[in-house]
Each structure stands twice: as structure tokens, then as C-alpha cells.
Amino acid sequence: MNRGMSIIVRTATRLVYALILVFGFYVIMHGHLTPGGGFQGGAVVASGFALVLVALGTAGLKGVLNRHLLQSLEEVGALAFLGLAFAGVGTAFFYNLLANSGSIFGATDPSALASGGLLPLMNWAVGLKVMTGIASILIVMIIGARKEAVE
Amino acid sequence: MKRALTVAGFLLVAAFLVVAATTIRPFGEPSHTEMDDYFLSNCQTEVVANNVVTAVVFDYRGFDTLGEATVLFAAVVGVLALFRTVREDER
Asked: What is the ipTM of this complex?
């Protein structure tokens, strides 16, 4: 279990992993234009992390998939979302003060990537929160399951 | 007695389902469309987003999404507390 699965699965994982991450980040980035959004894209990225954890075993826990880093990033995402919600509190909670403003993310063309005001930023905050939250749940559960198997 | 109660309950639920099925509104004809029409016609000018679902989730009803994010946060904290590592000398 420590070494992960067979060499076929490990090689295929290394090939597909980057594509899954790119697709997940694409879904988050275009959340205000195409179907999807922060939650969905974050879940896709977390499924990529799950694939690495299952296929590579504990070797996949090196680098970015560090439990403490992921937990910190989850809190960063949650605080960013709350901060963006409070950004327009002068008018109302969750007021979208960047939409139609003409400045950053304020394009008036609804098909432009930099449109939607606070929506892309909130998508990124929620996406970061979902991907790191689900990844830390998976890591902790996999470590716990392995400990049970050893004992 | 128990059997009679079971049969009575079954008949009651079946009658309710039959009544509901005969009086249901036709598919695709909701009784209130004011909110839907407002979102569909004003989403591109107010929020400047082509994805109406994202506009509703993050702008018109952002408070719901905040609760959703809180639920996920609570789930993560609960799982971390459940699987926390306790050293031998602390037991």
C-alpha cells in the first residue's frame, strides 16, 4: 500500500494528473461564463488529488499535498470569500461593487473573461476552499485507514 | 391490529400519491415565474455574467453560498477532529 498501485496505474496517473488539474482550474476560471463554478471546479481538482493519493500511496503526500499547507489554504479561501462579501457592505452584504464599473473585472461585455465583477474572485476563493478542504479530508482519512490496517 | 394499521397507512399514502399525481401541474409550467424572468432578463446587464446560475449563487443569493461554505468548513473540521493523531503519553 505504501508504494501505491502497479507501474501501469502510476504512469497513467502521472500523464492524466496535469490534465485533470488544468480542466479543474479552467472550470473555476470560467465559472461566470460557462457551466460550472468554484464548487464544481474545486471538486474536479480534488478528484485529481484523490487519484494521486490512491495511485501513488504515501509518496503522493510530498510537495503540495501537505496537510498543514492545505488546511491553511482552506482558511485563506474562506476568509477571502467572506472578505469579498464584506467588500460591498457599504450598500449591502454581498453587493457586487465591481460589476459594470469599467475597472478591473468590470467589463460591460458579459462574454468577456474579465466580466462579472466579484464573481470570478468569489469563484476562485470558493474553488480554493473546496479543493483544499476535500483534499485535506481525503489525506486525513487515507492516513487513518492505513493506521487501522497496520494495527 | 398492527396489520390493520399497516394496511390503513399504506392506503392513505397511496391515496395521497394518486391525488397528487392527478392534480400535479404540467411539466414546464411553474406557477410563479416572476423571479426566473427577472434573473434571465437582468442577469447580463446587472451582474454582467453569462452563467445565470453563478450569478444567482454568488450575487443575488450570496448568503446561501456563505452557508454552504460554512457547512463544508464544519465538515472538514469535524473529520480532522475525528481522525486527529493522539500521542501515547496523552491518552
From this structure: 0.79
pLDDT digits (tens, 9 = 90+) for A12-67: 998 999 999 999 999 999 988 888 888 999 999 999 998 988 888 777 677 667 77
Q: Does A108 touch chain B (CB under 8 A)?
A: yes
Grid cell, residue A111, equals 462574454
Q: How many domains does chain A have?
A: 1
Q: Let me know: does A56 contact A31? Beta carbons within 8 Å.
A: no
Distance from the A4 Cα atom to the nearest Cα atom in chain B, whole angstroms: 22
Q: Does A74 touch chain B (CB under 8 A)?
A: yes
Q: Which amino acid, one-letter code, is at A69? A: L
| A146 three-class SS | helix
- C-beta separation of A55 from A13 below 8 A: yes
Residue-number span of the structural domain to which A57 is assigned: 7-150
Q: What are the structural domain ranges in chain B? A: 2-90
- SS3 at position A123: helix
Q: Which of A78, A94, A108 sits opposite B69 (nearest CB)?
A: A78
Please indicate, yes or no, if residue A2 is contained in any of the structural domains: no
